[in-house]
Write a structure and sequence with these properties.
InterPro entries: Nucleotide-bd_a/b_plait_sf, RRP7, RRP7_C, Rrp7A_RRM. It is a single chain. The chain folds into three domains: about 90 residues, no CATH class; about 30 residues; about 40 residues. It is about 50% helix and about 5% strand. The chain is built from five helices and two strands, in the order αββαααα. A two-stranded antiparallel ribbon has the order 1-2. The longest helix has about 55 residues. The relative contact order is 0.06.
Length: about 210
């Protein structure tokens, strides 16, 4: 608002786009929600001021000769410090009625869009295109998972089976480690027995390595 007010002396300001850094990028869409998807930029920022007429750009460039532009003035003060914190806190308080109205409107648009997609999918189901290909929609071989009690039970059963398979694999891994440990213990025992037998044969001078 302050930038629009400052540059309005040059011409009609069409929009002000504030970004975290300079450079080309996609233009931000106008916030459709008052309560959601708000990202506050911190630190230094870059503003792109768009005028309705090209002549206003030249007038804006000439402003540098008039001295610095003051954003906060007596007639248009910018809140800072504790006043800004109080205003931010008051703005953060959500009106339940406005929030409910926005959520209801969003869900109505979503339901309408889903109904249109379902109708379009049902209309295109089984109909070949110009090249003879048949498009498989959600109504086709793998329909969307319904949020019903039966579907929830199937999901729980799959999770139970997956957990059982994991436990079985862990048991097999533990059994394999135990078998390997026993085999190593047997090899060590046989090695000690061979050492004792060789020592005994040396004592009896009957040791023949070849």
């Amino acid at each position: 608002d302050s930038l629009s007010r400052l540059f309005s002396r040059c011409g009609h300001v069409q929009s002000v786009d504030i970004r975290d850094k300079a450079g080309p990028g996609e233009k931000k869409d106008k916030l459709a929600s008052k309560f959601f998807d708000h990202k506050t930029l911190k630190g230094f920022q870059v503003a792109y001021v768009v005028f309705r007429k090209p002549a206003a750009v030249q007038a804006a460039k000439a402003l540098s000769q008039e001295g610095p532009l003051l954003i906060s003035t007596e007639s248009h003060p910018v809140k800072t410090g504790i006043s800004k914190w109080i205003a931010s806190y008051e703005a953060s308080i959500v009106d339940p009625k406005e929030l409910k109205a926005e959520v209801d409107a969003y869900m109505q648009d979503y339901d309408k869009k889903m109904a249109e997609e379902e109708a379009k999918a049902a209309k295109e189901e089984g109909v070949p295109d110009e090249e003879g290909w048949v498009k498989v929609t959600r109504k086709g071989r793998k329909p969307g998972l319904p949020r019903t009690e039966a579907a929830n039970l199937r999901v729980l059963e799959k999770e139970k089976q997956k957990r059982a398979r994991k436990e079985l694999l862990n048991f097999y891994a533990w059994q394999h480690r135990e078998t390997k440990r026993e085999h190593i213990a047997q090899l060590r025992k046989k090695f000690e027995e061979d050492k004792q037998r060789i020592a005994l044969m040396r004592a009896q001078r009957k040791f023949r390595p070849y």
